[in-house]
Amino acid sequence: MTDDAVVTWEDAVDGVLVATIDRRPANALGPPIIDGLNAVLDEAERRGTRVLVLTSAIPGFFAAGADIKHMGTVDAESFTAYGDLLRAAVERLASADLVSIAAVEGVALGGGLELAMACTLRVSGADAKYGLPEVRLGLIPGAAGTQRLPRLVGRGRARDIMMSARQVPADEAASIGLVDRLVEAGRARDAAVELAGDLTRCSRPALAAVVRTVDAAFDLPFEDGKRYEIDQIQDLFEHGEAREGITAFLEKRAPKFE
Question: What is the pLDDT of residue 73?
Answer without folding.
Answer: 86
